Amino acid sequence: MSFTVAIDGPAAAGKGTISRAVAAHFGFAHLDTGLLYRAVGARMLDGLDPVEAAQTLDPASLERDDLRSPAVSQAASKVAPIPEVRAALLDFQRAFAARAGGAVLDGRDIGTVICPDAPVKLFVTASDTVRAERRYRELAEKGVETTFDEVLAEMQERDRRDSERAAAPLKPAKDAVVLDTSQMSIDEAVAAAVAAIEERRG
Ligand code: CDP
Ligand code: CDP
């Protein structure tokens, strides 16, 4: 039987970290849908038309190791408002959500557009400065040369673009549980997510 957990929220809120832990805890499959938009963005930077890139996206290209760079983050949020790009990625995400044994999908529009009937929806968020600090630390550990102010500005620009676009804007679904992780450790955030899922799973 399928069971979908939808996790949405702004950049660097902890969606991926929580999704991976929850998937491991319950034995669910996990799809980071941001990677789909990042892969399309990366192909646009390579010179491809974004709609064509989305329509011909090979799931194997999600393994490209440059997908987490700030340049690709920006490119992803520039291709994401294009309705034809979103439409091309829809079936893959819905099929993933429907797989037997349970699935966790994280992104921006999982609870609102991709899986509006998901039994569990979490909207993970944190203050701008906390999120920028987390992302800055992550990039610094990977050896990416950047500053806190650059990371904060990149993140705020992307959040604004994601929230203000007409197609599938970033916003909590009406029935989402909002999880503000500003003051939470990773373990605390994961425990809160596990509890919310257990409550709805019965
Ligand atoms: O997927 P998303 O962009 O929402 O965030 P992430 O990649 O899961 O988390 C961004 C960074 O914040 C990672 O380095 C996490 O280890 C860290 N994090 C944290 O410090 N505290 C949390 N409660 C959640 C994540
Ligand atoms: O890890 P982080 O939260 O910084 O970004 P991501 O989840 O990898 O998403 C990268 C970009 O893809 C976002 O800024 C959105 O523009 C777009 N995206 C989207 O539009 N819809 C999704 N379901 C997931 C990502």
From TrEMBL:
HAMAP family: Cytidyl_kinase_type1 (MF_00238). It is found in: Cytoplasm. One of its GO terms (molecular function) is ATP binding. Pfam families: Cytidylate_kin (PF02224). Belongs to the cytidylate kinase family. Type 1 subfamily. GO terms for biological process: pyrimidine nucleotide metabolic process. Gene3D superfamilies: P-loop containing nucleotide triphosphate hydrolases (3.40.50.300). This is Cytidylate kinase. It is an enzyme of class 2 (transferase). GO terms for cellular component: cytoplasm. It catalyses: CMP + ATP = CDP + ADP; dCMP + ATP = dCDP + ADP. The gene is cmk. Keywords: ATP-binding, Cytoplasm, Kinase, Nucleotide-binding, Transferase. Residues 5-53, 65-198 form the Cytidylate kinase domain. Its main location: cytoplasm.
